[in-house]
Design goal:
heterodimer; A: alpha/beta; Rossmann fold; 3 domains; B: alpha+beta; 4-stranded antiparallel sheet; 4 helices; 35% helix; binds thiamine diphosphate; metal-binding (chain A)
Chain lengths: 577, 96
């Protein structure tokens, strides 16, 4: 999809090509339709090529946002997100986003400008060693020293970012390399041979014997449980996963990053597990006798106490990244495999024994769900965040692309939006990056313009990247921004209330900007919900085809429940009585 | 116990930076290191580590192995300093 800015004029292509032209051609050959970026001195040659080729660069207002937008784009599509920034501060501004992508396994290629080759190491103007700075938060990084190798580097960078366990790659591009004139031969090298994904890892053969053992143990189980992680979505294995669940009749706990892999309404879905997971999901962990984890990394927000996690269960783990085995929990069965391949094997190799129907176990699980359903208390004259999210779920028929920032609103969204499909929830899981939401929503909207895109954001997080409202105005995007304003840094305040005797240190804002006026300043519609007719107002908002910032003033002291305190076993939940 | 890790790596700029970064992050000190280029495209690093008990060495080994530029990882635990030195100096590959 190409979004042209009105002010942009396309010049006729010049014949003389530079390294930057070559780079853009290499990107096009990778299927890249748009990049998120911000210009500067070291990338002048690159931005000149962008101008001449009318390449689609989404001009963000801060480089951190470029990375989050690329993450949103990648999460909404499964494609690799691409970022262009200048050297020095442009490059350092990408660090948070790169770390975010690393922890959530999001495929990105970030091109950072660099000072000219001869100036590297001289503390030149806007020179930083971005490769060292990002070494710990990238899958791989490159510095290109001649335009002749650009094509190869781009090819490898995309292959690395998207294959195996996806993740971010940095390509550092010295200014002179981008500016260098390239001859016809180098150009033709770029044009050809870019379609195939080069496997960076040696192809692994599925270990059949291990799969058989895993399957047989799974079929012997009386109380089996399936834990689905983001890996299943990354592998594009959601259809296979759903067939597997129904064929083997397995109750499923989702992680934050896999919500939507199974519709929340599916009878086998127990919802999300972990710190703010559902009662039945967390009890299922403690009572199951067999736990099959596909593509989740047993994060500490999920397995809140690893030594007491799934104490009665044999644990099986399927993951493409074998360094996950035994990192948090030592599995009894471990298969290093692509989730799609493993699931296809399980579907194609039914055991000789019957699949059990697990009646008693499923009944037990639904009894728990009835005992302690996800709930909140309605208060007269108040707008409850959970109600707002559920109402948005109804208005969008559970089909919107949902983006969140980080905090309480993020957890309420995970709990109350009726997710139905993969790639639907875009949220910062591993790094928990405030400020992620707004730019990620922009990236998502550009990726899936046909979908309604809704951002749930807190008053703290919105202020971290609010400058990106201007991108929404600029590109005339239709994003519904639901600001759940509790006038506090809610999630931190919740921990202070629970674990620091209500000493609310630096978590209650002393006054706030007028968020409606802020929307207006960016030429966007903004309105505040009123407690007596907020549902009608929301319905009107979702009937329009333009961006609206909707502020819901919610009770400041609302808590996210259930909650497993950090370090406690999953079954010890606060807020269920 | 003296832990020795032997990594074959691509002979690329920054590859040791990545390798040592994974150790630094875990507060693992390098006691001794022998790094030689084994061919035009490869280097071999033999590194003795000081590790604490709590460290998950299996995990570290797998994390090292999954680096794009690290081609293979082998691990040796030696009883004595003498054994360690012998391994580092004599060439582990030949002895195995
Ligand atoms: C960049 C960053 N800084 C600090 C934090 C710590 N933190 C986690 S949640 C939170 C509060 C978020 O407040 P708000 O955006 O208003 O959302 P709420 O929790 O109220 O829904 C903070 C400060 C973080 N996650 N990210």
């Amino acid at each position: 999809m190409l979004i042209k800015r009105e002010t942009e004029k396309t010049e006729t292509k010049r014949t003389l090509a530079s390294g930057a032209d070559l780079l853009l051609e290499a990107l096009k050959a990778q299927g890249v339709e748009l990049v998120f970026g911000y210009p500067g001195g070291a990338v002048l040659p690159l931005y000149d090529a962008i101008y001449r080729q009318a390449f689609n660069n989404i001009l963000v207002r801060h480089e951190q946002a470029a990375v989050h937008a690329a993450e949103g784009y990648a999460k909404a599509t499964g494609k690799t997100g691409v970022v262009f920034v200048t050297s020095g501060p442009g490059a350092t501004n990408t660090v948070t986003g790169i770390a975010d992508a690393m922890l959530d396994s999001i495929p990105l290629v970030v091109f950072t400008g660099q000072v000219g080759c001869a100036a590297i190491g001289t503390d030149a103007f806007q020179e930083v060693d971005i490769l060292s700075i990002t070494a710990a938060i990238t899958k791989q990084s490159y510095q290109v020293h001649d335009s002749g190798s650009l094509a190869e580097v781009v090819k490898e960078a995309f292959a690395v970012a998207s294959s195996g366990r996806p993740g971010p790659v940095v390509v550092d591009l010295p200014k002179d390399v981008a500016a260098m004139a390239v001859d016809e031969q180098q150009r033709s090298q770029t044009a050809g041979g870019f379609t195939a994904k080069t496997p960076v890892y040696p192809q692994r053969k599925l270990a059949f014997t291990k799969m058989q053992q895993l399957r047989d143990a799974l079929l012997r189980a009386q109380k089996p449980l399936l834990l689905v992680g983001g890996g299943v979505i990354a592998a594009g294995a959601v259809p296979e996963f759903r067939r597997f669940v129904h064929r083997y009749k397995l109750p499923v706990v989702s992680t934050l990053l896999s919500l939507g892999a199974l519709p929340v309404s599916d009878p086998f879905s127990l919802g999300m597990g972990g710190m703010h997971g559902s009662y039945q999901a967390n009890l299922a962990f403690s009572e199951c006798d067999f736990l099959l984890n596909i593509g989740s990394r047993f994060d500490d927000r999920l397995a809140t106490n690893t030594s007491q996690f799934a104490p009665k269960a044999q644990v099986a783990q399927i993951d493409i990244d074998d360094s996950e085995f035994g990192k948090m929990i030592l599995p009894d069965f471990a298969v290093a495999a692509d989730a799609k391949e493993a699931l296809n094997w399980l579907l194609a190799h039914p055991a000789k024994t019957q699949v059990r129907d697990h009646q008693a176990w499923l009944q037990q699980l639904s009894a728990w769900q009835h005992e302690h359903p996800q709930h909140y208390v309605e208060e007269k004259g108040k707008i409850k965040p959970q109600a707002v999210i559920a109402e948005v779920g109804r208005l969008t028929a559970g089909d919107a692309t949902i983006v969140t920032d980080v905090g309480q609103h993020q957890m309420w969204t995970a709990q109350y939006y009726p997710f139905t499909r993969a790639h639907q929830l875009i949220t910062s899981g591993g790094l928990g990056t405030m400020g992620f939401g707004l730019p990620a929503a922009i990236g998502a909207k550009l990726a899936v313009p046909e979908k309604e895109v809704v951002l749930f954001v807190g008053d703290g997080g919105l202020q971290m990247t609010s400058e990106e409202l201007d991108v929404i105005r600029d590109y005339r995007l239709n994003i519904k921004i639901i600001l759940l304003n509790n006038q506090t840094l809610g999630m931190v305040r919740q921990w202070q209330d629970l674990f620091y005797k209500k000493r609310r240190s630096q978590t209650v804002f002393n006054g706030q900007p007028d968020f409606i006026k802020l929307a207006h300043a960016y030429g966007l519609k903004g309105l505040r919900l009123a407690s007596q007719n907020w549902r009608e107002t929301l319905a009107d908002v979702f009937a329009t085809q333009e961006s609206v910032l909707v502020e819901a003033r919610i009770p400041a002291l609302e808590q996210v429940y259930p909650m497993v305190a950090p370090g406690q076993p999953n079954q010890k939940m606060l807020g269920v009585d | 116990m003296h832990e020795i890790v032997v990594c074959k790596m691509k002979n690329r700029v920054g590859v040791l930076n990545r390798f040592t970064g994974l150790l630094t992050r875990r507060n693992i000190n390098i006691e001794n290191a022998v790094i030689i280029s084994t061919s035009k495209h490869q280097v071999e690093a033999k590194v003795e580590l000081r590790t604490e008990k709590a460290q998950n060495l299996t995990h570290l080994k797998r994390v090292l192995a999954k680096q794009i530029d690290i081609l293979s990882v082998s691990w040796y635990s030696c009883e004595s300093a003498a054994e360690t030195t012998a391994l580092l100096v004599a060439g582990i590959e030949k002895n195995n």
